Every structure is written in C-alpha cells, then in structure tokens.
Amino acid sequence: MPFSTPDLIAAGLAYLLGSLSFAVIVSKALALPDPKSYGSGNPGATNVLRSGSKKAAILTLLGDTLKGVVAVLLAKHFAAQFGITEAGVALVAVAVFLGHLFPIFFGFKGGKGVATAAGVLFALDWRIGLALLAIWALVFAVTRVSSMAAIIGSALAPVFAFYFYGAKPIFWAALVMTVLLIYRHKANIERMISGHEDSFKKKPAG
To answer: What's the domain range around 117?
Structure first.
C-alpha cells in the first residue's frame, strides 16, 4: 500500500485537524472546568456531559464528529486534483483519528475517538456509518452503557468495510481505528467485567 507525497501531506494536515480537542476548546470557551480534571478524565462529549452542560457536550460531539467528516471529504474531493490515492484517503482517515487520540496541541492526551471515528466512517461510506450508528443506538437503548455501545459498534466497522470493499484500504483503515478505539476503552472494559461501568440508567426515585 504505497503512499504518494500528496498522501503524506494530506495525512499530516488531517492529523493537525484531528488534534483540535473540542472538549477542551468548548469547555474553555464556556468557562467550564477542563474535562481532563473531572469524571473519567477523558476529553470527550460523554465526560463533558458530566459537567452538567448539555450545550457543551453537544458542541463537543459535533466538533469531534465534523473534524473526521471534513478531513475525509476534503481528501476525497481533492484526490484527483492533487494526486491523493485511494490508500491516501484511508491514511487521512486514520491520521485525523490519531490526531484526536494523541493531539499535538494538547500534550498528546486526547479522547477515545468514538465521535471522530463515526465522522470518518460516515465520510468514507455513509452505509457503514449508518449501520454502525444503528447498532450503537440499539446497544445503548438496551444497556444504557455508552462505552459498551461504542465498543460493539466499532468492532463491527471492519466487518462492514470488508463486506462492501474487501481487503481494500478502507478496510485496513477501519481495522486500525477499531483496534485503537477498543484499546482506548480498556479501562471501561475492565469496569464492565467487574460490574462498575457508568451507565445512563435512571435512578429510582425516593
């Protein structure tokens, strides 16, 4: 899977875009605490919601999702003009995701990548994105555990990518993101096994 010079340049720019941590940016803009200082310590929309600001959580979710969408769509749009290959578009997808996980602007301490991965997958192929969103929603509706829904959904990403594309670059991009996303959820997995993972179940009144 050789990469051209335009591929590498596009991937570098995508990484920088991914490094914009909207959890931190939005929290600072709204005079909220740094999301790394409370809750799970994860700079993502779910943890920002723990600040009590739904507005901040929604803006974080939108920002983290859209940077994945924008990076991939720009790479696809300018592929022919600048010589970005199919493998290069897949590399851009992984690069913007890596930027979110390890942001150069925030000491390489980023989020878990769920929203950005979703944006990337929707931009790569809306069918994959829509299928995974439906799976996430179903699992969350049953379990009320956001991390479990994210892990199960992401685990199926390479399956759908292989179904539609075979062993093409998009499959390998989905596989890499899945492995990294599940790894970033290792603490959540440990808590799920021990029965101590946070959920959004309503507490009984009284």
So the answer is: 5-194
Q: Which alpha helices (DSSP H) does the chain contain, by range? A: 5-18, 22-29, 45-49, 54-77, 79-82, 86-101, 114-124, 126-143, 146-165, 169-184, 186-194
Show the low-confidence residues of the chain (pLDDT under 70). 1, 201-206
Strand, coil or helix: 198: coil
pTM for the predicted model, two decimal places: 0.91
What is the distance between the alpha carbons of residues 169 and 163, in angstroms, rounded to a whole number? 13
How many secondary structure helices (H) and strands (E) does the chain include?
11, 0
At which residue do the structure tokens 């929309």 appear?
A: 45
The number of distinct structural domains making up the chain is 1
Count Cβ atoms below 10 Å from residue 32 Cβ, excluding itself: 18
Cβ-based neighbour number of residue 170 at 10 Å:
24
